[in-house]
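[09:14] KT: can someone run the structure on this one? pasting the chain below
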Amino acid sequence: MGKAKEIGTSNYYMKKLRVTYCAVVLIFTAFVGISTFAQQEPQTEKQALVMKFRKLTGADNVMLEINVSFEDIKNDLIGSVDSDKELTDSQKQELRKSAVDAYNRLDQQLKDFLNDQPKITPISEAAVFQVYDQAFTEAELKELIAFYSNATGQKALKFLPTLSAQVQQSFQSMLLPKVQDFITPKIKAEGEQLKQKIQDAKTKKP
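[09:31] RB: done, structure tokens below
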């Protein structure tokens, strides 16, 4: 009976962890580098193409994040103490500390797990490869590699990151004069109308 209760409690807390998965409390960051992973795993032809393409485009280091919250579990651990009517206030006060200690141990164990690079990096790299694998065929990757290997492709790589800022600047320089032409006479008219109202208010007899 005790073992069944223990298993049920464990499943309950795992469910709570999954429910609060997206809350921003603990942030794990992985920098996926192709050279380290390439030494660990044998490459298929497509993996090799993906890695070459990533290196050419400067995407060989990718920052990945995962957000996990233990906050609900912490509240549940403390709640299991506070809700026990058989405990005295002094016992509850002491056991709350034990609940917080339990939470801190769980939190540290999770951080250690997520910071275990030999374990996490292959998973991260597999996730990156999956995205490229679904997006491009081997033939497409070869074409992209050929393009980005030449001078035109390299020029495009330098240009594309600045494209948004350049378009924004160009748009503003074209639009602002039109905005000024549109709004200036209206500002003048509103100003004159307000001045007239002020003048009328001054001359109006009480």
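[09:33] KT: thanks! The CA atoms of residues 82 and 184 lie 66 Å apart.
[09:34] RB: yep, looked fine to me
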